[in-house]
């Protein structure tokens, strides 16, 4: 088993290296070498205005951008990049290293009719941004952080301008000032370390020779009544930079304000320390007191008077209802948990360089497939420990259940994307690759895991189960399953709240968010919180002579998923205004998927932690 795991880890490490290399190897240019400019899909900028979640292909026929000779060709992209809506094509820009400095060049002339003008104007009003890539770097606008006066690069730049005085008819940006920052690596060898674009709208005559004069010109307003010519122009400026290639991403990844992350992290750590102190007080003090009293009573008196959690010693390991579903959920949760853990470790080690777009999603999917063996193993062992007999069915559903559900949701979402005609829709071929990855690698590995799990068999329990179940006295209200789940979910949710906000904004506004350090720490804090809260509630439950803790500990662990769901709906209602039905369906679909996966992961942590604690608890007392 360990040999298999080790070789899996090795192959994963190697393959993730392979993910990393294409984007990570520096590219050297000599003077006059061709520098390719690739165009990615248009995305809405997050400016609090109108966030349509849809992305549009750059070469959407209605946008009328200049096409390269022979039509656009698609550039190869990673699986994750495609999933996240990357649609990268080549472009007609003719850029040569260190040549044509500051020369005004015409890209092409094109004509838009009234219909197309309306389409473009609508996209400008929705604050769509252009996304270009040069040498793996996204084109950005240089901005100043108003609070700190620091310069930072904001990825993407505006399609047009609809601020004052252009609210009525927006101005289309048809001129691009491109500043390419280069670093001289050695004599005659150059590397690109920064891509900045300032878009301008230059109106007036669109037919004659271009001057690229950006000052004192009227903007280009598109009439929605008749057809009209547009001339696209650009000017490249080569600017020497002292930034070495290795740190070229630093300007892009400046976290807007790291203080808020620190604040949230300190906040979560305080919560965790508070919790740990509380749990250790309760569990260590009262439990050791209980145990010594239980064991003392036995020695001094013949008649045994039981109280507290010892009363249910004959019940705690009674099989819960639906042990198979619980086993399957735990197995899948463990699989997801390992996936998240390994992905975060890779991210922290720097394997998932942002220079290789989409690598995060790719690594996550590959990890998930390979950790099928962990899922199968955990599921099968938990299932037999809970007294399950139908091991084959358990192995089968573990291997296929979750992938099928997730796949169905993704398929449905994709369907909505297709309806909305968005280029974010996953192509059929990619869906096929994912299905192959899941059902071709994950499922067999899961079956192998189940085989080893059932060979190792059930976990031995320290106390026997009574033949006749006990009556359960009515317990306090807060220990009822749903109130306990909601109550206990607040703490882990509170610990993760701020990071969640940033992840949401980056997911739904296509902004780079790479504070992996903060995410990893937050995930660790959340895991510890979930485990301690579940143990605490399980202890309370057993003290109240409520012995049906299996399902409840899972629910208590996963309780934060309900808060995440509620928060997502709140975020939608307060910050996003998605008007079309398909955008709302998409948002809700992603949100549901996120909450579902979170429920499985944290529920598994809660259940396994409680299982461990219950076994420890009942091994410590003497029972005749
Ligand atoms: C390009 O032009 C700008 C502005 O005139 C100048 O600062 C820069 O040094 C020039 N770059 C090269 C490589 O000549
Ligand atoms: C070129 O770089 C220098 C700093 O290295 C900067 O001050 C200047 O504004 C840059 N030029 C352009 C056109 O961006």
TrEMBL record:
The chain crosses the membrane at residues 262-284, 333-353, 359-383, 395-419, 431-452, 484-504, 516-542, 554-573, 585-614. GO terms for cellular component: cytoplasm; membrane. Its main location: membrane. Pfam families: EMP70 (PF02990). It comes from the Eukaryota. Keywords: Membrane, Signal, Transmembrane, Transmembrane helix. Residues 1-18 form the signal peptide. It is found in: Membrane. It is a multi-pass membrane protein. One of its GO terms (biological process) is vacuolar transport. InterPro entries: EMP70. Belongs to the nonaspanin (TM9SF) (TC 9.A.2) family. This is Transmembrane 9 superfamily member.
């Amino acid at each position: 088993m360990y040999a298999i795991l080790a070789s899996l880890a090795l192959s994963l490490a190697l393959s993730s290296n392979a993910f990393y290399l294409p984007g990570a190897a520096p590219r050297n240019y000599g003077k006059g070498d061709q520098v390719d400019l690739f165009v990615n899909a248009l995305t809405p900028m997050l400016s609090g205005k109108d966030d349509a979640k849809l992305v549009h292909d750059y070469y959407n026929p209605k946008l009328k951008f200049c096409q390269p000779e022979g039509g656009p060709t698609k550039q190869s992209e990673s699986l994750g990049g495609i999933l996240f809506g990357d649609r990268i094509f080549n472009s007609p820009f003719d850029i040569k290293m260190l040549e044509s400095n500051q020369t005004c060049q015409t890209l092409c002339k094109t004509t838009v009719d009234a219909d197309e003008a309306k389409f473009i104007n609508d996209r400008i009003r929705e604050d769509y941004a252009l996304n270009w890539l040069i040498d793996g770097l996204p084109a950005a606008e240089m901005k100043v952080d108003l609070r700190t006066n620091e310069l930072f690069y904001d990825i993407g730049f505006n399609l047009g301008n609809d601020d004052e005085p252009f609210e009525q008819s927006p101005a289309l940006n048809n001129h691009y000032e491109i500043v390419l920052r280069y670093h001289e690596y050695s004599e005659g060898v150059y590397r690109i370390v920064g891509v900045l674009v300032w878009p301008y709208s230059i109106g007036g005559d669109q037919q004659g020779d271009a001057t690229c004069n950006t000052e004192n010109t009227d903007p280009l307003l598109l009439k929605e009544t008749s057809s009209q010519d547009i001339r696209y122009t650009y000017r490249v400026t080569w600017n020497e930079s002292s930034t070495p290639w290795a740190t070229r991403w630093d300007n892009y990844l400046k976290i807007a304000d790291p203080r808020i992350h620190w604040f949230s992290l300190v906040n979560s750590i305080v919560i965790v320390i508070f919790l740990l102190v509380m749990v250790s007080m309760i569990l260590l003090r009262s439990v050791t007191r209980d145990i010594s009293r239980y064991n003392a009573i036995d020695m001094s008196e013949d008649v045994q008077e039981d109280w507290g959690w010892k009363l249910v010693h004959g019940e705690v390991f009674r099989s819960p209802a639906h042990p198979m579903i619980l086993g399957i959920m735990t197995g899948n949760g463990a699989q997801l948990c390992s996936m998240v853990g390994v992905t975060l470790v890779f991210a922290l080690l720097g394997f998932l360089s942002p220079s290789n777009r989409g690598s995060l999603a790719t690594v996550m999917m590959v990890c998930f497939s390979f950790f099928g063996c962990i899922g199968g193993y955990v599921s099968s062992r938990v299932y037999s420990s809970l007294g399950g007999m139908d091991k084959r069915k358990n192995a089968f559903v573990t291997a296929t259940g979750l992938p099928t559900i997730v796949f169905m949701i993704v398929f449905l979402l994709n369907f909505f994307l297709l309806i909305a005609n968005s280029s974010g829709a996953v192509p059929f071929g990619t869906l096929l690759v994912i299905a192959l990855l899941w059902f071709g690698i994950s499922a067999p590995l899961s079956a192998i895991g189940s085989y080893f799990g059932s060979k190792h068999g059930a976990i031995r329990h320290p106390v026997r189960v009574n033949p006749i179940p006990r009556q359960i006295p009515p317990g306090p209200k807060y220990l009822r399953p749903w109130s306990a789940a909601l109550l206990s979910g607040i703490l882990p949710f509170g610990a993760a709240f701020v990071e969640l906000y940033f992840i949401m904004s980056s997911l739904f506004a296509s902004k780079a968010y790479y504070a992996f350090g903060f995410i990893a720490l937050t995930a660790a804090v959340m895991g510890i919180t979930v485990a301690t809260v579940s143990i605490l509630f399980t202890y309370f439950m057993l003290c109240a002579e409520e012995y049906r803790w299996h399902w409840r500990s899972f629910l208590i662990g996963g309780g934060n998923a309900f808060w995440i769901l509620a928060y997502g709906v709140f975020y939608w209602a307060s910050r996003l205004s998605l008007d079309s039905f398909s955008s709302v369906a998409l948002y809700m679909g992603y949100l549901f998927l996120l909450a579902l996966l979170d429920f499985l992961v944290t529920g598994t942590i809660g259940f396994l932690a409680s299982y461990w604690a219950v076994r420890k608890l009942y091994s410590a007392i003497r029972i005749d």
